[in-house]
Amino acid sequence: MHERLSFHIQRDSFLHRLNPLTKLVLTLALVIIAFTFPWYWTPHLLVIAAIIPLSLLGKVFREFSLTALRLILPAATFLFLMQAFFQPIGTDIIFKFYFLDVTTESMLFAFRNAMRIFVMVSSFTLFLLSTHPSELMSDLTRRGLPGQFAYVIISTLQIIPQMQAKAQTIISAQRSRGLDTESTFFKRAGSLVPLVGPLVFGSLVEVEERAIAIEARGFTSKHVKTSLHEIPDSTFDQSLRWVLFILIIASVGLNLWLS
Amino acid sequence: MAFVNLQNVTYKYPLTKEPVLQNINLQIQEGEFVSIIGQNGAGKSTLCYALAGFVPHFFKGEISGEIEVDGRKSSESTLDEWVLNVGLAFQNPFNQISGAKYTVFEELAFGLENIGVPRDEMKVRVEEAMTLTGIRDLADRSPYSLSGGQQQRVALTSILVMRPRLLVLDEPTSQMDPIGTREVFGVVRRMAEEGMTVVMVEHKVEWIANFADRVIALKEGQILMEGKPNEVLTSGLLVENHFGVSRYTSVAREAQQRGLWKKEKLPVTLDESVEGFRS
User: Fold this and answer.
1) Which candidate from A147, A154, A221 shows the least CB-CB separation from B115?
2) Nearest residue to B209 via CA among B238, B237, B226, B234
3) CA angle, A28 as apex, A23 and A31 as ends, to 5°?
4) Across the strands, what pairs with B24?
5) What sign does the dihedral B38-B43-B44-B47 (CA atoms) show?
6) Do B99 and A230 lie within an 8 Å CB cutoff?
7) pLDDT tens, residue by residue, A206-222
8) Edge-to-edge strand list for the sheet holding B33-38
9) Over pLDDT 70: what percentage of chain B?
10) Chain B residue closest to A209 (CA)?
11) Which residue of B has its CA nearest to A151?
12) Chain A hits for B84, Cβ within 8 Å
């Protein structure tokens, strides 16, 4: 069964049709503004007014909210509790818990930071849901990212699941010869040795052969590379990137000016 | 002047004591289909790597002698220039998948993207190559979801699409069933007729006898024998050196000793065998 390491969901939506670089800039803009814009309610507003609408616009709201609930909420909640209890600021004590004081200030501080983390993780989730990794890489390569760099990223995404499958095959093979993988911790740790050897050495051989195979297909050619797929980059994309760029500069600028 | 010309080629890998290739002299004409046979460790794969430029450009090690393809010397060329003329596909298909592409169509276009072929031409060439090797129905599949034999076809196609002048194949049918093997030999034969020079390492001697123009037997890094397929594959020298021989040849040799095989030439293929026993 073919598996791959990617969140990407193919849908026909406004968000999917945007140029990958535009989406990357949009993601970075959301994160940077959430962290730098000097107004307390910025991250909260971004979630309500930007991230949730974008997930609806990208027709991935269901997948997005599932990921958010499973991945982001526990982390953000943990962060909120830690900071609410341990941040020694403010005098307006709401309640005491042994030696820990929870003040209005520390609550607000924690709430904002948790929301900032929420913006960061959720905007990247949205980006990954709506952008095909190979599209992103070919677009970035076209703009001057070294081909080798893009290759490492993309092939890793595909090869990790293949390696997991191989590890599973080796485990089954060794178990069928009586390897103990189900008893005490130390026994199982010991039984890792005959599993790691074949996996590591096998992978090294694979790397060499793969290097030969892609080299034979002109990977290190000095020609200017072309791309099979045309990745659209409309004037709308270009102007949107400029607007976002200006917003980022303004937000960082305001932050520096007011501090 | 031969299209491929090897003069006194001796080569040693960085970590081996003995040379893997010793004094290889070999001339191949343009459009010729040459098959290489030999046991494990005879230097077949190393010879393939030498023709494809990976020995010594990729593996380093010590090389002497001269390798020439189409009048150009390997020693004066770089690997990225060399691969534009010489294509290489080898045994393990899984490791030949680039890993950078999500469908077979994209996988086949990978090499063309690398050498800067324009998009429209790229699509035409990929379509043509897929038709040639009969894998059009795999175009939208993930290369990782294919069977070994299918992956081998994709690996072969991914080299054919680059249109090399010399095609080097190291056991390209090892994971294929007889139908797949026949088709690959058919495609390779056709490419040779269209002027591509082919060097193919293969164990399946009956197929070699049917399709190749010349056979080279390698032993311990040296050329033991070369000549027309039937001549080499039925030679007593191969039996003495423990090469794999066609079962039809073995049967006919037995029969010859008992006076049951009347012809002078021994058979390699089923057809030759049937014809010989009938006469």
Assistant:
1) A221
2) B234
3) 130
4) B9
5) negative
6) no
7) 889 999 999 999 998 98
8) B86-89, B166-170, B197-201, B33-38, B214-219, B222-227
9) 100
10) B95
11) B100
12) 218, 221
- HEC string of B72-102 equals EEHHHCCHHHHCCCEEEECCCCHHHCCCCCC
Does position A98 have pLDDT exceeding 90, yes or no? no
ipTM of the complex: 0.90
User: How many whole angstroms separate alpha carbon B111 and alpha carbon B108?
Assistant: 7
Cβ contacts of B139 on chain A, cutoff 8 Å:
none
Q: Decide if B95 and A151 are in contact by the 8 Å CB cutoff.
A: no
- The secondary element (H helix, E strand) that includes residue A55 is helix A52-57
| CA of residue B266 relative to chain centroid, distance | 25
Give all strands (DSSP E) within A100-198, no chain letters.
100-103
Would an 8 Å CB–CB cutoff place A221 in contact with chain B? yes
Q: Does A230 reach chain B within 8 Å, measured CB to CB?
A: yes
pLDDT band at A1 (very low <50, low <70, confident <90, very high): very low
Residue A223: per-residue pLDDT: 87
Above 90 in pLDDT, residue B32? Answer: yes
How many Å apart are CA A47 and CA A30, to the nearest integer? 9
Taking 80 as the threshold, does the pLDDT of residue B105 lie above it? yes
Per the CB < 8 A criterion, the answer to whether B83 and B77 are in contact is: no
Q: Which residues contact B181 (CB under 8 A, 6 or more apart)?
A: B173, B204, B207
A12 close contact with B: CB closer than 8 A:
no
Distance CA(A27)–CA(B47), nearest Å, equals 52
Q: Could you tell me the two tokens for A23?
A: 């989406």
The pTM assigned to this predicted structure is 0.83
Position B240 scores a pLDDT of 93
Work out the burial of residue B17: count CB atoms within 10 Å of its CB; fewer than 13 is exposed, 13-18 middle, 19 or more buried. Answer: exposed
